[in-house]
Write a structure and sequence with these properties.
Rossmann fold; eight-stranded antiparallel β-sheet; 6 helices; elongated; Elongation Factor Tu (Ef-tu), domain 3; about 270 residues; 2 domains
Length: about 270
């Protein structure tokens, strides 16, 4: 049974997502549809990629992921349909594909959307192409090969022999703060040394914990979360609010290429001793 996931920045306050599901089921009635989220930021691609990737990886090989983020940033004459690592991705040609994957996949086609003037009309073209693909198993039956696409890549931590500097990727509903430093990167550079995680001037954390129960209520703590990223929090408190930490600043964003400037992100540093 085919599996299709839906991810967007549209929200669910109106009819759009329901209509898209109806389009899919009318054309591919035997498929399973799963929602990842419909509340991504249309500007913060880094955060969107973090949320999407850490959910999408749990879906079976062969899943088609329809990702509708910043769909109308520019007029869309086509939508990308790509294959990577056993999964398939349908994304606007706005840089989000390479932000998600960290590379440009080899297998990409363009779904022709010329003449489609509304979101629903464009999704009709997308769903039709997915149906062709499911019927044949050949990506080329879904569109024309795409050679040039807009490429925007995720920022990586700045690394020196004795320190690392990461950017705040995500702040969850409890105001825990996720930083774009992965456990494998941390371990590789720590080499068993002691360390200090430094944020907002002189605030530091010097021990990694396994869970919230490892520290008393109101204590600061750090650990690597289930996605493998550095996370800092206050047990029973709001880390971001208490210490003035913030993620990507959408109010300052005024460029056409989202997330290409580190100055839009607040830093967290790790010093090794």
């Amino acid at each position: 049974m085919p599996v299709i996931t839906l991810t967007s920045d549209i929200g669910q306050a109106d009819f759009i997502i329901g209509a898209v599901k109806g389009q899919i089921l009318s054309t591919i009635p035997d498929c399973t549809i799963a929602d990842i989220t419909h509340y991504l930021s249309s500007k913060d691609y880094q955060q969107g990629a973090y949320i999407f990737n850490n959910a999408a990886k749990y879906y079976p090989k062969g899943t088609v992921h329809i990702v509708m983020v910043n769909f109308f940033q520019n007029p869309q004459e086509h939508v990308l349909f790509a294959h990577f690592n056993g999964h398939f991705f349908i994304v606007p040609d706005n840089g989000f594909l390479t932000m998600m994957l960290g590379l440009k996949p080899v297998d990409i086609v363009k779904i022709n959307c010329k003449g489609a003037t509304t979101f629903i009309q464009m999704l009709d073209r997308v769903v039709e192409s997915v149906a062709y693909f499911f019927a044949s198993g050949n990506l080329l039956d879904a569109g024309e090969p795409a050679t040039e696409i807009l490429e925007i890549y995720p920022m990586q931590p700045t690394i020196s022999p004795n320190w690392m500097e990461g950017q705040i990727l995500f702040i969850d509903q409890f105001e825990n703060v996720v930083v774009n430093i992965r456990k494998e990167e941390f371990d590789l550079h720590a080499k068993g040394r002691s360390f200090k995680i430094v944020f907002t001037r002189n605030e530091t954390i010097e021990v990694l914990r396994n869970n919230y129960g490892d520290v008393p209520v109101a204590d600061k703590m750090a650990w690597f979360n289930s996605a493998g990223y550095l996370e800092i929090a206050v047990r029973g408190g709001n880390m971001a609010g208490l210490f003035g930490l913030s993620k990507y600043d959408e109010n300052q964003h005024n460029k056409q290429r989202p997330n290409d400037n580190k100055w839009f992100f607040q830093m967290v540093r790790v010093f090794f001793e």
